[in-house]
Structures are given as structure tokens and as C-alpha cells.
Write a structure and sequence with these properties.
This protein is mainly beta. About 0% of the residues lie in helices and about 50% in strands. It has no helices and 8 strands. An 8-stranded antiparallel beta sheet has the order 6-5-4-3-2-1-8-7, with no helix packed on it. The chain is globular, with a radius of gyration of 13 Å. The two termini are about 25 Å apart.
């Protein structure tokens, strides 16, 4: 059931992240099949879109992303369920902090 899936609130919705240090904004579209699409800004300042796979570990307490990019980090973050439109801050295993919000729809 979706009650047990900490990612359920993200399916069909848009996750927006803003990196605390750089202010870089990105969006993540998570799918129930363990895939996602990300849109943001690349190191060169140009729009960047890529796909990847996501997984949870620690009984759903940790979210790990595996982007399909060359030499990409595979960051993991603490995972907690938040209602749509609530902002929270998360710091991933690479030491990057993000302001995160889920908005309805895609």
C-alpha cells in the first residue's frame, strides 16, 4: 500500500530542489518503477536533463539516486515523507544541502 511507501507522495508530482550553496534549482520526477528524470543546470550553465534510477535502503529511511551521467556521484539522503507544498532541508552524502518541496502535478 502507499502508506508504506515513503516515495508515494512524489509519484505524479514534481520535486523541486534548490542547492543551499549555489542556489541552483532542479526538478526531479520520480516514478513508481524506480526510475526518475531530472532537469537542472549543468556545470556550464546550460540546461541539463537526464534520467536515472532511485532506490531506498534502511527500511525506507534513506533515498539513493543513480544518475545516468558520466562520472556522476551517487548521493544518498535521509528520506522522510512530507506533504505536498511543505518545504524541508536535506543534506546528502556528498555534503550538499538542498531546500526541497513537492508540488502537485508535473
Amino acid at each position: 500500500s502507499s502508506d508504506l511507501d515513503p516515495m508515494a507522495v512524489t509519484y505524479g508530482n514534481t520535486v523541486t530542489t534548490k542547492e543551499s550553496k549555489t542556489g541552483a534549482v532542479g526538478t526531479l520526477l520520480f516514478n513508481a518503477d524506480g526510475t526518475y528524470t531530472a532537469n537542472g543546470t549543468g556545470p556550464d550553465g546550460k540546461p541539463l536533463s537526464y534520467a536515472g534510477k532511485w532506490s531506498t535502503k534502511d527500511s525506507g529511511a534513506t533515498l539513493c539516486l543513480t544518475p545516468t551521467l558520466p562520472n556522476a556521484l551517487e548521493p544518498c539522503s535521509p528520506l522522510a515523507t512530507h506533504p505536498v507544498r511543505e518545504h524541508w532541508t536535506v543534506t546528502n552524502s556528498a555534503g550538499q544541502s538542498f531546500d526541497v518541496v513537492v508540488t502537485a502535478g508535473r
